[in-house]
Write a structure and sequence with these properties.
The chain has 318 residues and is of the alpha/beta class. Helix content is 23%, strand content 19%. A hairpin with a 4-residue loop joins strand 2 and strand 3. Helix 4 packs across helix 5. The longest helix has 10 residues. The model has no long low-confidence stretch (mean pLDDT 97). InterPro entries: KFase/CYL, KFase_sf.
């Protein structure tokens, strides 16, 4: 299905905004990944001209300490077997969402105990609804469109720092697409480049050690206008190099939902795939050099029944 209702034609949600539930059926657990049809994937493959592959994952454990201290660092163990003839390894304390990651539709609900398509916490805890393995079976492949936000903000004459809280408006996102020469198509995977990865790399360890106590990043703004824009361009996913795709910190608490933490709309209402902390600097450098801001993106999330998130396992090909 590639024809979606407009945002304002969706039913109103009980705590605000519009609900994208049941657009793909009452039992759907893919969300907007349904837009990655055979035709969409085949068209994306036509974008491959040079065979240039860009790995979009940060190293496991590369963020030290993790930006979210609830997600620990992986512990890697190497085993030597058969007197040095073969090797094996395993990981302890591996949090799939501690570095480059996909958020499944079981990650954040539209409201408490109410996840995409009405799934309840008990169903998610039991591994019955919205887990990452549904995307793993389908596969994530399609046209990636790169929004170079630092360049777009510079062109618009707006002050910008990749270490500041800079919420991108719907107009900012639209102008970034224009700057890249992009016309959105249903199923697009929006690649949101903020420069946060390079900003983080420039910080010394003393600064990094303090970041989990409170840090700021650019990202999509928390507003209904932004939600409307993202639904109406009919993208299937957004991946970004920042902590949460949205500008951070988000706003939680009574009176702010569902837009203060816009994950509630994008994942919980729309069923949109979000990818966070992606390694985008090399891809964006190539886009700037060639003037080509689109590519084929291919990801293989973990085949983890009941899983809430996954390592990114993503490449872009041009």
């Amino acid at each position: 299905m590639t024809q979606l209702p407009n945002y304002d034609d969706l039913p109103e949600g009980p705590i605000g905004g519009r609900l994208g539930w049941h657009v793909f059926g009452d039992d759907d657990q893919l969300g907007l990944i349904n837009l990655l049809t055979d035709d969409v994937v085949a068209d994306a493959a036509k974008l491959i001209k040079r065979g240039k592959v860009f790995a979009l994952d940060l190293p496991l454990g590369g963020l030290r300490p993790p930006l979210n201290l609830k997600r620990g660092l992986p512990e890697h163990h190497v085993l030597t077997n058969r007197g040095g003839l073969s090797m094996d390894d395993y990981y302890d304390n591996l949090y799939p969402q501690s570095a480059s990651q996909w958020d499944s539709l079981a990650h954040v609900g539209y409201q408490a105990d109410s996840f995409y398509n009405g799934a309840a916490v008990a169903q998610i805890e039991a591994g019955e609804r919205n887990s990452i393995d549904h995307w793993a079976r389908h596969g994530l492949a399609g046209r990636a469109v790169v929004l170079d936000m630092p360049k777009a903000m510079e062109a618009a004459g707006k002050p910008y720092s990749a270490g500041d809280h800079v919420p991108f408006s719907a107009d900012d996102l639209s102008k970034a697409a224009q700057h890249a020469g992009i016309e959105h198509r249903p199923g697009d995977i929006v690649v949101l480049y903020t420069g946060f990865e390079e900003w983080y790399a420039d910080q010394d360890q003393a600064v990094r050690d303090k970041l989990p106590d409170g840090f700021t990043t650019p990202g999509i703004g928390q507003s209904e206008d932004v939600a409307r824009y993202l639904w109406d361009i009919h993208c299937s996913a957004i991946v970004a190099d920042n902590y949460a795709v949205e500008a951070w910190p988000a706003t939680f608490g009574e009176g702010t939902a569902p837009f203060g933490f816009i994950h509630q709309m994008l994942i919980g209402s729309f069923g949109m795939a979000l990818g966070e902390l992606f390694h985008l600097s090399e891809l964006v450098a190539d886009c700037r050099e060639t003037g080509v801001y689109e590519a084929m993106l291919v990801a293989a999330p973990m085949m983890a029944p009941g899983g809430i998130g996954s390592t990114a396992n993503t490449v872009a090909i041009k």
